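Hi L.,

You mentioned the student needs an example of a multi-chain input paired with its predicted structure. This one should do, with 519 residues in total across all chains.
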Amino acid sequence: MLYFLNKAFASIRQRPGACLLASSTIGAALTLSALFFLSVNNVQALTAFWSKSTFISVELIDNLSQKEIEFLANDYQKMPEIKEAAIVTPEMAWARFKAKGPKSAALLEGLEPSILPTTIELFLDQTYPLEKIAELSQNMEASNHVRAVDYGQDEYGQLHELLDVLRRTSHVLGVLLSLMAAFIVANTIGVTIYSRQDEIEVMQRVGATPGFIRAPFLFEGGIWGLFGALMTISLLALADYFMTPHLSKILSPLLQGFRLEFIDVSGILWIGTFGILLGLSGSLFSVSKILGRKV
Amino acid sequence: MLEVFSLSKTYAGGTKALDTINLEMRKGEITFLTGHSGSGKSTLLKIISGEESCSDGRVLFQGQCLTTMAARQWPKMRRKMGIISQDFKLLMHQNIRENISIPLEVVNTPRRIMRRRVDDMLEQVNLGAHAKKLPSQLSAGQRQRVVIARALINNPLIVLADEPTGHLDPKEGADIARLIEDMHQKGATILVATHDHQWPERIGQRPIYLHEGRILDNPVMRVG
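Structure written out for the whole complex:
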């Protein structure tokens, strides 16, 4: 084992250019794949974030007594999905609208708060799929006391559909990207190892077994993969350090409270493992191809 | 030690490289195969060393049939053979000492023994002063010496030398020829393919002439 590891390191020292080429290719493939999966993860997190932040606004009919309103709010509060049910009187809604700015206040001039309906704002206790929120809303709308229920269905529905398409496409793209990365890596390693077929022939000529010939190449492939993974992790860490605060600043007015996801320890381990596996399998495939051609 | 029976080789295009070759070699013999380019000398050596397959016939080495031997048995068999070729096949990133020690590494020889044997061999091929040099720093003749040292380091039962003086100038060629003759004097069994038909005559040997894949004059040669 130590002998093969020494051989692998010696070969890397003798051909630093080949090592750099193979490692960079693995690093580029891993970085592309990691960025893609990070994007998909963030899109999914964003969907979850929006679902969680959505609340249901129940618009009540006019002329309901305070007691009826409170009774209804209490009923909602008892529902397991509802974390909080808050009554918003026309006066409260009037004050909120006015507080939005002088333009909003000007719009209300000459009008009375009574033109606004009483609403009950319902905050969900956790993330629910859109179908579940729609089902809840339908049940609420069936009540005689309710005029309309709004959970941002129009905007949210379109967005959800878009995200759903993105999510499905991402699976296909993910597979294609991985296959492409594996193909490019296998070819680069193939070319690197092909240039050393003389070495393989010499080893065969002096009676080395296929396993003995393969082993140093496998170790070398694994080391290339590890170097490639380290390049990817460094690049992502740099991107995280320089870009995340900047992006968060840009997105914060739109997505208050949303945190961009980046790689964590498990992500680093995955990248390391994939890098090593990519290097190993590329080497194994290429050496076996050359060995298979020889007697 | 080595017996070749009715060995034939026809390539996919129909070209006949070898046609019913018969040959026998005993331990300690040196046998020369001569003939023009394309006469089949190299093909015969390649079939014996397992680098090519034959179309018909048999090759027995120490009673073992090489032509029907499974691929997984070849590595062990090759350790009993020393192969010298005109294309050198040296590892250009490794120094001379490392190149010579490869066959010993393959059989997991202890480092101390390996060092001693490589030192001895370097002296025998007169390359003691060049042990740490890379092949690219040596002349063609010196590189061929490295190949010979690598072929002999494991004390093979037979040495197969394919045009060992082929790419060398006359002086270097004569040196290498002498080195091979010395190895034979020390007891090595050697099968040499060469287009230089004067070489065997110079040392009083009758060569086997190959022409278009057939042996001329002697269907079975015994050269001692």
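You could point out the following to them. Residues 86 and 177 of chain B are 13 Å apart (CA to CA). DSSP finds seven helices and ten strands in chain B.

Best wishes,
N.
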